[in-house]
Amino acid sequence: MGLICLLIQLYSLAVLAWVILSWVRVSATHPLGKVQVFLDRIIYPIILPMRRVIPPLRLGMAAIDLTPLILLVGIGLLRRFVC
Fold first, then answer.
1. Torsion angle (degrees, nearest 10) of CA 28, 31, 33, 34
2. Which phi and psi (to 5°) does residue 27 adopt?
3. 3-class secondary structure for 10-78?
């Protein structure tokens, strides 16, 4: 159980890092760019199906993507259930 709880915690930290790095534009050859590519590979398989179901929240000309927040809530519920 301890390993599963650790993996769940690491994934939630990866989602937070992915959200923060999405605000910064860096090239793929930059060290942060390589981290961003890695996080994209582990986050997108979960986020993309959620984005198909949950549309962005429209605020005038801008849109807010709520799927990372919903994913973090789901991870928190999973962690509470499993751990």
1. 80
2. -75, 160
3. HHHHHHHHHHHHCCCCCCCCCHHHHHHHHHHHHHHHHHHHHHHHCCCEEECCEEECCHHHHHHHHHHHH
Taking the chain (83 residues) in consecutive chunks of 10 residues, what is each chunk's mean pLDDT?
A: 92 96 88 92 95 90 92 95 92
C-alpha atoms less than 13 angstroms from C-alpha of 55 in its C-beta half-sphere: 4
The pLDDT, as a whole number, for residue 62 is 87
The DSSP 8-state label assigned to residue 4 in this structure reads H
- Who contacts 12 (Cβ-Cβ below 8 Å, separation ≥6)? 72, 75, 76, 79
Distance (Å, whole) CA 5 – CA 8: 5
φ, ψ at 64 (rounded to 5°):
-110, 125
Q: Name the 3-class secondary structure at 2.
A: helix
